[in-house]
Amino acid sequence: MKIIDGKALAQKIKNDVKKHIFENYIAKVKKAPCLVCIIVGEDKASKVYVNSKRRACEECGIGSQIYQLPEDTSKNYLIDFLQKLNNDDNVSGILVQLPLPKELDKYRNEIINTISPEKDVDCLTYQNLGKMYSGEHLIAPCTSTGIIKIIENENYNLDGKDVVVVGRSLLVGKSVATLLQGKNATVTACHSHTQNLKDKCQKADVLVVAVGKSKMITKDYIKNGAFVVDVGINRTEDGLVGDVDFDNVKDSCSYITPVPGGVGPLTVACLMENTVLLHENRLKLQKNCETEMDIDN
Ligand code: NDP
C-alpha cells in the first residue's frame, strides 16, 4: 500500500509553474499573470483556502488580488464587480470562492456565468464545462485535474478500469467522472440516491469519494488493491478528516490519498497552472485578433 504524497506532487507542479513564470515573464520584464479571488462573507474555511491560494501565487511569481466582500453583498453588486474584472486587462483568472452565503447561493449559476470563460480559472461556466464535456477543453476544474494527475503520476493505467465516483457536484464529482471517462475508464457516478452504494464501490478498481461526510467509506466498501482517492475535507473535533476512514481502509488498498496532504494541495497547484494557461490563451487570442484586424485593413 502506498500513501500518496499530494504535497510533494503539488510542489513539483508549482516549481514548474515558477520556472515558467521566471523564464517567460520575470526574465523578460513582462507582466506576470494575475489571479483574483473573491470571498463573500465570513466562511472560515474559505478564508483558509483563499489564503493558501494567495501564498501559492506568491511562491510561483503569479500576481494575486483577494477581495473580501461583506456577507450582505447583493447579487447585482457582485455581478457588476465581476464584469469590471472581466474587462480589466491586468486580470488573468477570476475565482469566486464557494460556498456563497445562502442569499447569494440562489443565484450561484448566474454569478459564476458572469465570469468571462477566458478568465474562468476553475472552469465552472457553462461554456467551459461544455468544452470539457465535449473533450475540447484547455482547462478543467482544479480539483478534478489534480485527481487525474495523482493517478497518472503513479503510472496507473486507467484504460478499461472500473471507476466509481461518489458525489456528483459540478465542482468535483461530475467533472472528475467526465475526465476519467476521457481516459477510457468505465465510470459509475453515485450520489445520495444511489442504491447499494457499498456493492458498487466494492467493484471499483479506482474509488473517488467527494461527498463531505467524514469517514463514511470503510473497508467493507473497498475492493482489495483498489486505488482510493479521498476528496472530502471535513472539520471535526479530531481535526481535518476525509470521507474515507483512512486507518480502517488503508491496508486494503494499493494506493490511498490522505487528508490532509492528498488532493487538497493538488487543487491549489492546478489553480496556478490554470491561471497561466488562461493568461497565455487570452494573449494568443488577442494577438490573433490584432493580426486579423491588420489583414482587414
Ligand atoms: P457537494 O455538497 O456539492 O456534493 C456532495 C455530493 O455527495 C452530492 O452529489 C451528493 O449527492 C453526494 N452525497 C451526499 N451524501 C451521500 C451519500 N450518503 N452517499 C452518496 N453520495 C452522497 O460537495 P462538493 O462536491 O463540493 O465537495 C465534496 C467534498 O469534497 C467536501 O468535503 C468538500 O469540502 C471537499 N472538497 C475538497 C476539495 C479539495 O481540494 N480537496 C475541493 C472541493 C471540495 P446528491 O447530488 O444526490 O445530493
What does this structure look like?
This protein has 2 domains: about 30-115, Rossmann fold; about 140-265, Rossmann fold. Helices cover about 45% and strands about 15% of the residues. The protein contains 11 helices and 11 strands. Strand 5 (about 160-165), helix 8 (about 175-180) and strand 6 form a beta-alpha-beta unit. Helix 1 packs parallel to helix 11 (about 265-295), helix 2 (about 45-60) crosses helix 11 and helix 7 (about 140-155) packs across helix 8. The protein starts with a strand and ends with a helix. The mean pLDDT is about 95. NADPH dihydro-nicotinamide-adenine-dinucleotide phosphate (NDP) binds near residues 171 and 212. NADPH dihydro-nicotinamide-adenine-dinucleotide phosphate (NDP) binds near residues 193 and 233.
- Give the class-level CATH name of the largest domain: Alpha Beta
- Given the helix and strand composition, which structural class is it? alpha/beta
Per DSSP E runs of 2 or more residues, the count of β-strands stands at 11
**How would you state the average pLDDT, rounded?**
96
Bound molecule types: NADPH dihydro-nicotinamide-adenine-dinucleotide phosphate
Strand order of the largest sheet: 1-11-8-7-5-6
CATH architecture of the largest domain: 3-Layer(aba) Sandwich
In the residues, how many domains can be counted? 2
What is the element string, with H for helices and E for strands? EHEHEHEHHHHEHEHEEEEHEH
Report on the biggest sheet. 6 strands, parallel
In percent terms, what proportion of residues is strand? 15-25%
Please tally the helical runs, counting DSSP H or I stretches of 4 or more residues. Answer: 11
- Specify Rg, calculated over alpha carbons: 20 Å
CATH superfamily of the largest domain, by name, is NAD(P)-binding Rossmann-like Domain
Q: Might you state the CATH topology name of the largest domain?
A: Rossmann fold
Broad shape: globular
Oligomerization category of the chains in this entry:
single chain
Helical percentage = 40-55%
Poorly predicted segments: none
